[in-house]
UniProtKB/TrEMBL annotation:
<dbReference type="InterPro" id="IPR007358">
    <property type="entry name" value="Nucleoid_associated_NdpA"/>
</dbReference>
<dbReference type="Pfam" id="PF04245">
    <property type="entry name" value="NA37"/>
</dbReference>
<feature type="region of interest" description="Disordered">
    <location>
        <begin position="323"/>
        <end position="368"/>
    </location>
</feature>
<protein>
    <submittedName>
        <fullName>Nucleoid-associated protein</fullName>
    </submittedName>
</protein>
<feature type="compositionally biased region" description="Polar residues">
    <location>
        <begin position="330"/>
        <end position="346"/>
    </location>
</feature>
Amino acid sequence: MSSEFAQLVVDEAIFHLVPQRRKSAPVPAELQLSEAVCQLTDDVRTKIQANFRKVLTSYGREVVEETDVKKSTLPDCVHEYLTKERELVEVSEDIAQLLWDSQKASSPAGLLLVAAASLAGQRALLIVKLEQEGGLRAQDVVVDGRRTFDMRYFADLLMTEHNKVYKAALFSADGITEEGHIEGWAADKQLGGRMAQFWLQAFLGCRQRNDPKLLTQAFHEAAGEWIDQRVSDPEKSLRYLMALLVELRSNTPTLDPTAFARRHLDLRDQDDFLTHLASKNARTTVFDKDVARVATRLNDLKLGFESGIFIVAPVKRVDEDVEIDDHPDGTSTVTVKGKITSTRSHYSARKQDPASAGDQTPEPDSDA
């Protein structure tokens, strides 16, 4: 299944108006369906393609049809279109009705775009919810022989440069499995990659292919392994590990390994880092971050020495209180600044040899 969104081509499209369900409205809103595809000029077609190539590249997540509990008939509509059992206009009307039925009263009104498309030469269906915006346009005019600007307000603008509220899904023919289920991509630009449940489940009838908890764990383990095994400079190793922990502890909902490498790693290390991630089946493209499976490993930094000595420090104090000096012979001096408030022995529970168990208890000091 190709994910080369640069090869997304829109052939024709149809729009349907999906109003907001206002409980207090004196007259119930009704779905307004189009009966024919719209005319797309080259400029409009180019704009649509460019917008949604970008949205799917930045926010697209792989999705698969939810087969355990069927929550929507949209996968059936998509399958029927991709297998040429039904045409665009007819299928789009059913899809518009599904969106109308799945939306809550809090969902704003918008236009549903359903487009016949191709992806890497494969028949595809693009489904997008657009929200209209208001805006002003200034037009240069001459009034009474004097130049001025005529300001006009437009209440039905679409896909403006600052519009952050639309959702998209793309399915192609090569995403149909042997069992007849559909696979594709979905994006929710409003939530920055994460998807509203009504869009993903109630409307699309899908789920994400990859669990964010497992993706985050795989990245954490692969990145940590690369730092431990491939970075020989202790000072650089500490810098990289700190960047990794800070990235995972941050409040950002997504993680982009390629962007992480570009921001935090030396240029000569970036390709090797990404190659290592790929070799460990960790993602190198953006994914939803969920640290639930690694949270307990993100609070402390542990430095290990050849002698068996370890230093454990809270991540938030490392930059200020820990300093590493490297020496020509490969050894390092670690300086920890601060006031010593406690000292204690460290006990590690291990299975004892029965024959020597009796030798483990230290004898009291003798006065002799």
